[in-house]
Amino acid sequence: MPHIQQLPPHVADLIAAGEVVERPASVVKELVENAVDARASAVVVELRRGGMGLIRVTDNGCGIAPAELPAAFLRHATSKLRGPEDLGRIGTLGFRGEALAAISAVSRVEIQTRRRADPAGAVLRLEGGVPGEVEEAGAPEGTTILVRDLFYNTPARLKFMKKDSAETAAAAGLMQHLALSHPAISFKFIKDGQEALHTPGDGRLDSAVYAALGRDFARSLLPVNGGGDGVSVSGFITRPLQGRGSRGMQTFFVNGRFIKSQLLTAALEEGYRNQIMKGRFPGCVLAVTLPVTAVDVNVHPAKTQVKFAQEKAVFDAVYHTVLDALAAEGGPVSSPAPAAEPEKTVNPRGDFFRTMDAKTYREQGAKPAAPPPEKPLPAWNTERGGPRLSDSVLPLPKREPPAPGGRTAFPPLRDDAPPSVLRREPEKAPPKEERPFVPAIPQAGTEVPGQEALEPQKEAPWRIAGEVLRTYIVCESEAGEVFIIDKHAAHERINFDRLKAALEPPMRQALLTPAAVEPGREEAALLLENLPLLEEFGFSCEDFGGGAVLVREVPADMDAADVTSTLEEIADKLRQGRSPAERREALLHTMACKAAIKGGWKSDPAELRALVAKVQSGEVRYCPHGRPVAVKLTKYELEKMFKRA
Ligand code: ADP
Ligand code: MG
After folding, report:
1. DSSP category for residue 628
2. Which of 39, 132, 427, 495 qualifies as a FRET site for 591, CA 20 to 30 Å off?
């Protein structure tokens, strides 16, 4: 072992810098937080090449005294903290006194600043943390910091930088959060010369939400205001029927700081329990305010996590605020909610989610199912709100509901209808005593034109006994074994394998009028970065500007009403996937699941037989998540249960 030596200061600085400044977006975060702490009312952030070319942050805050300028770049130099007692009551975004030191250690920095009272401002340049002379200069009131050549002296870090667009997206997300947590500050974000965000700074959260998260999201929101036990909660939450495909639109602030918190997420979602579709997530912009002594922000270097002294009080405050707001919106929560399987009281694929408010849903959606009509109604025509495929979308073939007795009548498929291999049919809630059983041998006239190819060609060595709980197919094999097959899991696997094999490009359907999807700025950027991948899965999209993505084509087997939620989910997956292979795999899962029939939906006999054939052939054993698609009960096992053996 070599001798122990204390590291030279510049090496120690580089190591420390690496912890604070991981990537361009972290530089942006620190500089903008400094501007906020300096009580600026306007902050402009400019990025070139994802920040690797240039990061410029301009504010009109308090400025720095020329004499103190070099000190601002020393490690552990801060004006925000004096003694250990202050650590327990941090009211500013920064306090570690590390950011400027760290940033300047790994880049070339120029700072111009002037305090309001001073006649002249000052300029200082630093290279690799080494300061030049402070020079007097004319400067507008406030501070401008330019960061160039980030990581020029740490080649190892430079090598690991993500694509420029990923950095831009991260910075955009960050600006979004800062803008939302500080509605009284006007934020502008310019990427490569293009304005990507501009909030008015009029002090109104709704203006900030509109500017930062887009019109569609802003329109889906309900205001909330409440709290208790020293915790106040205010902001906006999505209406129950405007649930999102992911948690990407949940934004929380604690004392003005954007944070991630499982506790807050859980409290929010608990408030929606039984009021939101399974698999959908509420969105929110919620500000939680509590005494600075009741929260510890010093638990994570990036300061995106906090620790609450009174977790239960915080949970309850958020939960009750959400609950009260939802109750006020849609009548009492204890109203006869569709207790059992609430998602089945409405057509899960109709786009009337977007056109119906929570109150109508609760009043009408919770009605007992209507008795079966004399003659079949078109499947999409319900008295509950008339779900219609948007007129802008090529209609998918209309489905007829099952007639009483289990016969299913199918209208002729339209020529222009996209081919669908395995059909999906929304649940029509037939009365219990007449729940249709799938006949073991399909009756004449129940065939779907064009689907014969899916039939097992020869006499199958198994027989479908029926479908139970609208989720499981029960069938028996020649060998005297009973199989219970999970429809959704099996279908998902089949789709997954088909997509993975990618023998041919997926069939697409063109939307007559392209749909503009606003999944959130960061999400939109992620989608746009991955256009070739989306293309591979049958989506044709392009940049619509302002955080929106224009969708022109979608996979043929996808329901028009699912486009937005699917793209939201995909964006979420793209964010999590680190390598291209991981992202592709995640998309495979999403698309396989989206195209699969869901448990709880009526399936037609041909579809069930096609699934069983695949399972029986051994081709399909586990769903893509690793759950079994079928369980087997042998004759012996059954006999044992009945004490026959
Ligand atoms: P911290 O924010 O944790 O105090 P920084 O390294 O980010 O540490 O900044 C050091 C000090 O420089 C701050 O405490 C503040 O006094 C001053 N400072 C930094 N940026 C600005 C700014 N934009 N306007 C005014 N003062 C600033
Ligand atoms: Mg700081």
Report:
1. B
2. 427
For residue 550, the 8-state DSSP code is E
Residues in the chain where the model's pLDDT stays below 70: 16-20, 81-91, 94-96, 298-303, 330-459, 502-505, 598-603
Q: Is 471 left (phi over 0), alpha (psi -120 to 50) or beta?
A: alpha
The answer, yes or no, to whether any atom of ligand 1 lies below 6 A from the CB of 61, is yes
Residue 505: phi, psi to the nearest 5?
-65, 150
Question: Hey, how many other C-beta atoms are within 10 angstroms of the C-beta on 423?
Answer: 20
pLDDT of amino acid 120? 92
Span 509-540, pLDDT tens digits: 888 778 888 888 888 988 998 998 898 888 99
Cα 78 to middle of ligand 1, angstroms: 6
Q: What is the pLDDT of residue 601?
A: 66
Distance in angstroms (rounded) separating the CA atoms of residues 463 and 479:
11
Distance 521 CA to ligand 2 centre (A): 25
Strand duo 130-131 + 108-114: pairing: unpaired
* Ligand 1 centroid, distance to 99 Cα (angstroms): 8
| Continuous segment of H or E residues that includes residue 123 | strand 121-127
> CA 328, CA 317: separation in Å to the nearest integer?
16
pLDDT on residue 449: 35
Q: Which amino acid is at 428?
A: K
Three-state SS across 245-290? Answer: CCHHHEEEEECCEEECCHHHHHHHHHHCCCCCCCCCECCEEEEEEC
Do the Cβ atoms of 401 and 376 come closer than 8 Å? yes
CA gap 515, 517 in Å, rounded: 6
Chain segment 231-264, per-residue pLDDT in tens: 999 999 999 888 888 888 999 999 888 888 889 9
For ligand 1, say whether the CB of 40 is within 6 Å of any of its atoms: no
**Cβ(96) – ligand 1 distance below 6 Å:** yes
